[in-house]
Amino acid sequence: RPFHVEPTNIVSVNDDMHRVTDEASAMNKRIHYYSRLTSPADRALIAPDHVLPAPDEIYVYSPLGTAFKVDSCTDGYGKNSSLVTIFMIWNTMMGTSILSIPWGIKQAGFTSGIILILLMGILTLYCCYRVVKSRQMIPLTDTSNWEFPDVCKYYFGSFGQWSSLLFSMVSLVGAMVVYWVLMSNFLFNTGKFIYNFVHGINVTDIVPGTNGSNKVICPSAASDHPPQNRSVMFSSSNRTGFELFEEWWDKSRTVPFYLIAVLLPLLNLKSPSFFEKFNVLGTASVVYLVFLVTVKAAHLGIHLEFNWFTENEFFVPEFRILFPQLTGVLTLAFFIHNCVITLLQNNKNQENNVRDLSVAYFLVGLTYLYVGVIIFASFPSPPLSKECIEQNFLDNFPNDDIMSFVARIFLLFQMMTVYPLLGYLARVQLLRQFFGNAYPSLFHVLILNLAIVGAGVAMARFYPNIGGIIRYSGATCGLAFVFVYPSLIYMISLHRAGQLTWPALIIHIFIILLGLANLIAQFLL
């Protein structure tokens, strides 16, 4: 299914599941859908023999690499309780966007940022509800194994098929680019911390920051003196070794290339099933980030001052013209529309789908609000300006901060295990569409992987701004899957049934225009 930086899901199945009883027919239909993604000889979507799940064991994956088994919460017939369904949706939506939410709030203004998170959550929830209902409005006998791209193909023909593939690849490649930028960042800071610790180097970054044990820094204020090892004062007799290290361990000029040696061979593997074992790190990553934010806020305190339209030295206005940058990030942060049908079709009580989806969206929005508001509110202003909040809020903590070091190395390892899975999904969607085989040859796979890796390296080298990458890719794929397709399909369905009214027409055209304006604004601000 189409994948992005934020969520996707794969169901691990085995061949015996095709012989389950009639009560598990829903599981069979789901298996049939995923069997179309690969050839029968390709077992990448099939669990290894030593971890074969029972027929009611479902594994769900997200860009943060979370995997969870729901067999203990099913009713014995492959159905999930509402609690499991809610957690699956929450887990699937939580992604790397969480690192950029505080920056987005700063760009929009504190008050308008909170309002936009609430409004975007409601709007994307409504569009997601329209996606769920879209399949039910098709007058065919059996559409139970259809996903949203299948619905697009039904209504728009080959254009719907190829456009859904295009926007899916945009979201997927965008996710992989964000991963490469973040992995380069985390690897650089982790290596820097280890080197300084091993060699007993006391580093003082020439970057504005607070004093004390809970130091916060402002890298953007030192643009003329990047906060890397070459811009430090240190006490060490081995000055030559230190300078050699800083030359060969640079955040943008060298480290992004080092990752190629590790990740490119992994991308060329026929099956990435080995890396599925590490996906549980995704949920742990989110939980640890929430814990880190809470602890930091408890030590730093709250620093807020409300200036509604004027900007001063330390605070930003409550309402800013740059607010579309946050809406672009939020479009991807709340993006689940291309897989929500699969997540909900195994809900035990189908009549609770709307309620469970709404609760899941509420929890996702609450998580984003908590992290974004707490980081923004506790950012020490003064002495630092709120403008110092980085696109990756972990960059506001020095590399020798222990809690941030743990977060970075945790996320680095987790992302390195998820990246091959993302590459596999890109290969399945693109190569199977053109060649009828997910692995036509090593040459074809290598060319595709070189293009994807090249895009990641280029961005990490010349445009390492994850907030910018997320908002561009989010607004682009969101235009299709969040705003345009759900609204158009709903209006077409009502028109064919003779039930289309002027209020419904105006409302959904307005939603489409909002999505278009959201995309255009990303390139103007």
From TrEMBL:
UniProt catalytic activity: L-asparagine(out) = L-asparagine(in); L-glutamine(out) = L-glutamine(in); L-tyrosine(in) = L-tyrosine(out); L-leucine(in) = L-leucine(out)
Keyword Glycoprotein annotated: yes
Pfam families in the cross-refs: Aa_trans (PF01490)
Main location: membrane
One GO MF term attached to the UniProt entry: metal ion binding
Transmembrane segments: 83-103, 109-129, 162-182, 255-271, 278-302, 322-344, 356-377, 402-422, 442-463, 469-492, 504-524
Alphabetical UniProt keywords: Amino-acid transport, Disulfide bond, Endosome, Glycoprotein, Lysosome, Membrane, Metal-binding, Sodium, Transmembrane, Transmembrane helix, Transport
Cross-referenced InterPro entries: AA_transpt_TM
Subcellular location: Late endosome membrane; Lysosome membrane
Keyword Nucleotide-binding: no
Signal sequence range: none
Domain Amino acid transporter transmembrane span(s) in chain numbering: 81-190, 260-521
Membrane topology, record value: Multi-pass membrane protein
GO cellular component, one term: lysosomal membrane
Domain of life from the UniProt record: Eukaryota
Record family assignment: Belongs to the amino acid/polyamine transporter 2 family. SLC38A9 subfamily.
Protein name: Neutral amino acid transporter 9
Higher taxonomy: Eukaryota, Metazoa, Chordata, Craniata, Vertebrata
